[in-house]
Amino acid sequence: MPAFVLDDPTPLDPRRRWDSLDFAARGACYDNNAGVPDSAAQVAARNAASASYRAAHPAGLNIHYAAGDRTAFDLYPAADAQAPCLVFVHGGYWQRNAQADFACFAEGLNAAGWAVAMPGYTLAPEASLAGIVAEIGAALDWLAEHGAAHGIGGPIVLAGWSAGAQLAALHLGHSAVAAVLAISGVYDLAPIRETYLNEKLGLIDAEIETLSPLRLPVTPKPMTVAYGSRELPALVHDARNLHALRSAAHAPGALLSVPGADHFSILDGFRRPDGILVRAALYLLGGTR
Q1: Is residue 183 a contact partner of residue 258, using CB atoms and an 8 Å limit?
Q2: Are residues 159 and 170 in contact, defined by beta-carbon separation less than 8 angstroms?
Q3: What is the value of pTM for the model shown?
Q4: How far apart are CA 33 and CA 62, in angstroms?
Q5: Count of C-beta atoms within a 10 Å radius of residue 229
Q6: φ and ψ at 71, to 5 degrees?
Q7: Are strands 63-64 and 72-76 parallel, antiparallel or unpaired?
Q8: pLDDT of the residue at 9
Q9: What is the DSSP letter of 10?
Q10: C-alpha span between 15 and 26 (Å, rounded)
Q11: Chain centroid to CA 57
Q12: DSSP element (H, E) containing 23
């Protein structure tokens, strides 16, 4: 079982004084690249490692689940077709990155005997956020129907990082999903509309109300909410608020603070079979396999 640790003291949530912040200061609350001094180096290393992992595992790449250019899976099956599968939804504030950039994070779970499936999705502004959410649902539908033909037939833990965590949290209720691992996510969209991120998202009231996990009824399936102890305070508080909302509804799941991890380095917990995020995924299915 992973070590579940709460930070102390709690960083102040800048959104408590939101009205006093100018546009630039509001954007800084969510600017993970600026908030992590070596983010560019981390991203470059991640992309290089992912390119190597994809090159070594070419059989299941770019398998389309829908008609769009980006609506495709990269599949990394396990030796056992009935092994559990982690479906990992990438981040990038719904407007950048691709599943190929995150292939290296299949390594730890593959080594632990799990399958991994990584869906891509259409990015904003080409797609609205509601459209992106629908694509993730379509990806899960496709995997439930066609996964076995590609060697993936076991239970699904749906994971997401950053914007992908919001997308994963919204699909906890999907019939194919046994549990969710939400990592470093944004779970209330209202402040996002008042930052630079909204230039491409163009969020509307209905999206804020229906696509913010913190504004929705709780789904009583297991969900672990994870974040790095060095995350931006707004993300720390979104994670804690989501876990608190679920705890108040007696929904199962843990709050996982990864000591010393920032918004990018937290994903290193997927690189080894004993990594903290690998162990968190295993724990969501009862520690089996």
Answers
A1: no
A2: no
A3: 0.95
A4: 28
A5: 16
A6: -85, 75
A7: antiparallel
A8: 58
A9: P
A10: 8
A11: 22
A12: helix 23-28
In the beta sheet, which residues pair with residue 249? none
Alpha-carbon span 189 to 173, nearest angstrom: 20
Higher pLDDT, 7 or 90: 90
- Cα–Cα nearest to 126, from 98, 96, 102, 168: 96
- Strands in 156-161's sheet, in edge-to-edge order, are 63-64, 72-76, 115-119, 85-89, 156-161, 177-183, 223-228, 255-258
- Nearest Cα to 163, choosing from 195, 139, 140, 197? 197
CA distance 233 to 199: 23
- What CA–CA distance (Å, rounded) separates 125 from 102? 22
pLDDT tens for each residue of 234-256: 999 999 999 999 999 999 999 99
**How is residue 184 written in tokens?**
């470093």
Cα–Cα distance, 121 to 94 (Å, whole number)? 9
SS3 for 99? helix
**Whether the Cβ atoms of residue 158 and residue 87 lie closer than 8 Å to each other:** yes
Give tens-digit pLDDT for 267-277: 999 999 999 99
Please tell me the CATH code under which domain 14-284 is placed.
Answer: 3.40.50.1820
The tokens of 289 are what?
Answer: 């396999």
